[in-house]
Amino acid sequence: QVHLVESGGGLVQAGGSLRLSCAASGEIFRIDGMGWYRQAPGKQRELVAKISGGGLTEYAASFEDRFTISRDNAKDTVYLQMTSLTPEDTGVYYCGMSTSPGYRFDVWGQGIQVTVSS
Predict the structure, then answer these.
(1) Which of 15-24, 27-36, 71-80 has the lowest mean pLDDT?
(2) Contact, 26 vs 3, CB < 8 A?
(3) Which DSSP category does 63 fall into?
(4) Range 5-11, long-range pairs (CB < 8 A, 24+ positions)
(5) Distance (Å, rounded) from C-alpha 22 to C-alpha 49?
(6) Alpha helix (H) residue ranges in the chain
(7) What's 17's DSSP letter?
(8) Do 93 and 9 meet the contact criterion of CB atoms below 8 Å apart?
(9) Contact at 8 Å (CB) between 25 and 96?
(10) CA end-to-end distance (rounded Å), the chain
């Protein structure tokens, strides 16, 4: 069984930065696409960014200028560097992983809280 554990969240002031990490552990046979989603209070979960096994990245339009997704395949870890944070970025951030080709996320982390104060 594969587990994902997010870290790096917390409280930050508006204009600040945070770097989220998500590490996979367990019986890992294959990791292909990985990504980050966000669920803001009272809203549905939305895609932030995703990255293929080969490092190709895709961003939701509202995040591409401020957030950067990356991965370290040797560590089975995906990162999300967030800059110029605003209170609207507050929410629970989830990482997902696909154990088959593409972005069919079938493993999810437990989520990590990010709170941006004004």
Answers:
(1) 27-36
(2) yes
(3) T
(4) 5/109, 5/110, 6/93, 6/94, 6/95, 6/109, 6/110, 6/111, 6/112, 7/112, 8/112, 9/93, 9/112, 9/113, 9/114, 10/113, 10/114, 10/115, 11/115, 11/116, 11/117
(5) 13
(6) none
(7) -
(8) yes
(9) no
(10) 40
Round to whole Å and give the CA distance between 1 and 44.
27
Could you read off the pLDDT of 6-25 as tens digits, one per residue?
Answer: 999 999 999 999 999 999 99
Mean pLDDT along residues 39-62: 96
Q: Which tokens go with 102? A: 């593409």
What pLDDT shows up at residue 51?
97
* Strand residues in 1-118 grouped as ranges (E): 2-7, 10-13, 18-26, 34-39, 45-51, 57-59, 67-72, 77-82, 91-97, 107-108, 112-117
Cβ–Cβ < 8 Å for 77, 22: yes
**Higher pLDDT among residues 102 and 33, named by residue:** 33
43 by DSSP, 3-state: which? Answer: coil
